[in-house]
Amino acid sequence: MASNRVLLDVATAGASGDMFLSALIDLLGQDDALLPVAASLLIYDPTLRVHVTAQSSKGRNGKKLDINLDKGVRLTPKSLIEVITAVCEELEMSETAKAFAKKALNEVIQAESRAHETPIDKLYLEELGSVDTILDIVGTAYLLEKAELLGKSKFVATKVAVGSGMIEMEHGPVEVPVPAVAEILVAHDVPFHTGSAKTEVLTPTGAALLVTLAEEFVDSPEGFIVKRQGVGFGMRDLGDVPNAMRIIIGEEAPKAEKPTEKPWKKPTEKPPEKAAKKPAERTTMTPVKVAEERTEILEAWMDEDVVVIETTVDDIDGDTAGTLYDVLVSEGLAYDVMMIPAFCRKNKPCYIVRAIAAKAGLKSVAEILIRHLGAAGVRYTTWQRLTAAKETVVCRLELDGKEFMVRVKVSRGMDGSIINIRPESDDVIRVSQATGIPIRELKPRIALQASAVTD
Question: Staple partner for 16: which of 150, 204, 206, 244, CB 3.0–4.6 Å?
Fold first, then answer.
């Protein structure tokens, strides 16, 4: 029988955290898919900006992620673990996704510790201590789960390109592959080659994500029947070498010849260290430099295809309706769910249950509708939708002598004017609980502050 596979094609230009993110965004077909993760990190670095753009090179079309952040914000290994734990909790990620993120981070920290022969509690992570390391790792786990790949598919990878030459780091020039990458490759017995690029193409974060996912390595993508793929471009210009990796969802042909190289299996690994408990006040973990600074997540109106899935039921109760909404919307499977009163055959009152979702989520949403409602089937169609430009700002509120950070989602018209200001409900509830001020009184104050910041 044919078996489902997800192939990580890293043979040409290796892998990095932003390439994983870009490839998954392209695979999902949703430029705003990373928005919840980026927004959750604004508490730690309000200057964080994430931009997704279309990219083409050597006949490949995909996405590229541009990340701007405060490079002065550096976290210790302990703080990285605490922040990743807190962000995963805030995003309500599954236990599988949380374990993946912690394991990938542990790979990076352990590799750096071995490379520098320094205990973890005394380790300085240089570039890897910045907020984008958290974005790369948690974002990859979040998007893999959103694409319904994590824990449900077998991941294989091509022999990975590492690059060659020297690169400049904070403490001076370093030979490629850098020590942390070399440690990860050796620890997991990963097959690699230099490749054509004359610089670093496999980063420590990319290597950690790769070994955390891949269960097997193959020579090439041959023998795969491609169903869907996402292409993610890296930030460096590699000249004639396309700086891209592919994530391919495919099916292994039944009669395809097996790769000729020696079978590869993961070696036994030590369990990751336990993450420290989440601190009571997360905003004290890192210094906030300019809390009022506007953080743009998307800069333009977005045109995209969505599916509208609906069914008609005449025996739905309130508990079922509420649970269905929570499952589909709160877990990010659907953009919106509506229950429209109507009359059906024999003049019976009924509801038309309608969900709007990304095209990739059609079958998942359909399965949930059928299971929860007991429907015999669903009907669906493809719509085009145009969504306003969105951004998230962080506002600093001073109440009763205490300072609070609140994220606010702002939508803008084509002329740049503000259409809507909506505070993040979790942050409003947190401030309300801490101050005793009712939510209905807090929201206007937050909206006024957000309006002042964005004008």
Answer: 206
CATH number 3.10.20.300 is the correct assignment for the domain at 390-454? yes
Residue 295 amino acid letter: T
Q: In the sheet where 294-295 sits, what is the strand order?
A: 294-295, 389-399, 402-412, 418-423
User: What would the pLDDT profile of 6-37 be if each residue is shown by its tens digit?
Assistant: 999 999 999 999 999 999 999 998 888 998 99
Residue range(s) of every CATH 3.10.20.300 domain in the chain: 390-454
Phi and psi angles of residue 56, each rounded to the nearest 5 degrees, phi first: -135, 140
Q: What three-state secondary structure class fits 45?
A: coil
CA angle, 155 as apex, 269 and 66 as ends, to 5°? 95
* pLDDT bracket for residue 279 (50, 70, 90): very low
Write out the CATH class of domain 302-387. alpha beta
Of 390, 327, 377, 318, nearest in space to 357 by CA: 327
Angle at alpha carbon of residue 97, lines to 185 and 130, rounded to 5°: 60
CA atoms in the 13 A half-sphere facing the CB of 198: 2
